[in-house]
Amino acid sequence: MMICRSIRQFDSGKRAAKQSVSQILPNSVSSSFYSLFFFSLVFQKGRRCPLVAPHMDQSNDIFALSPCFKIELDQVPFISGRNETKKVARRRWAILAKALKSPTASQPSSPTDEISVRRISSFMLLETRELPTAPLAHTAPTPWRSNDPVSKRTWFEYSIRVGAQLYQLNIGHRNRTFSAEDLMGFNNTGNICIWPSEETLSYYACGNLALFSGKRVLELGGGMSCLAALFVAKYAGAQRVLATDGNKASVENVQAILRCNAFACRTDCAVLRWGDAAQDSRGQFDVIVSADCLFFDDARTDLVNCLRSRLAPGGLALVMAPRRGATLDSFVGQSEAAGLRCRTVPNYSDVVWEKRLALMANADYNDNIHYPILIEVTKPER
Length: 382
What we know:
The protein is of the alpha/beta class. It contains 11 helices and 12 strands. The protein has helices spanning about 1-25, 25-45, 85-100, 180-185, 195-205, 225-235, 250-260, 295-310, 325-335, 350-360, 365-370, and strands at about 50-55, 60-70, 125-130, 155-160, 165-175, 215-220, 240-245, 265-270, 285-290, 310-320, 340-345, 370-380. The protein has a 7-stranded mixed sheet, with helices on both faces. The protein has a 3-stranded antiparallel sheet with strand order 3-4-5. Helix 1 packs antiparallel against helix 2 and helix 5 (about 195-205) packs parallel to helix 6. The N and C termini lie far apart (about 65 Å). Its EC number is 2.1.1.60.
């Protein structure tokens, strides 16, 4: 009876905190993680077996097990009744938050280290080089200067070579792990790493700069770097570029990056949540870019509505994402139902296509989740 009751209470407590845990971890690991976390807390009570808490190391954007923070399970009360379920779930969530805030034992030496939950982490289109100091291009104070200065980041030079042309940006990585507060804001997927979709979108943008010349350009869901938008801002001769994400910590990082690069046009960053786009006062854009933003089912409608409201008549959105089950097709269907026109382009670059073919020999490679497909979304003229 005690085991049965514990199982029922475990399921109830797990459901109570599922939403919070899902905000912390990507879909690929969250479901198994919160089950393991809660199972361990319920059934190992009293064994004084320390549970190694997870952390996310932002310098390489990795989920890992940290030996720096261990939880003594006798600190966590056993669930004694149905009414206590939510209270205990909150306490366990607080423990997880404390673990996430703990410092890492060590920092990877480079953002290109290949330890990641993604397995296939790159199409090898980006090269990185650590910089000895912060490469300040602008010294004017910003709203973030006192709280999160450039000096608190490790700086890297990110390079993309298209033919004989080399394109470079200075990108900062915060010198600390994420806090639970950082991770719980809006959608945190951009916080995790340079995903293949962002990498290939940046490569495509650098190889097709004429698409952006003289245009107003917006990036949606650009994460910690807004890489595609910033390459465009530096090299394409755009009229203006606005780099956005729904997560404040991501935008703060991009603000620091703006101070460490010289751009050829007006370049800004801002928090923009797709559901609020219709009320946003920043106007419409000729070109919108977005990488790997299709997999949250509950956010896809907001993304489509955001594209429809932010695109100028005749405007073009370049959306890069893997097929990932039915998510890409669902996005196309919703976009067309909203009056937008979509064209799916699997082979948008001979270089990327050849790298895809080479990766298919890798047992870890799954075309469905690893190969980014380009979707050209256009808004008809009035």
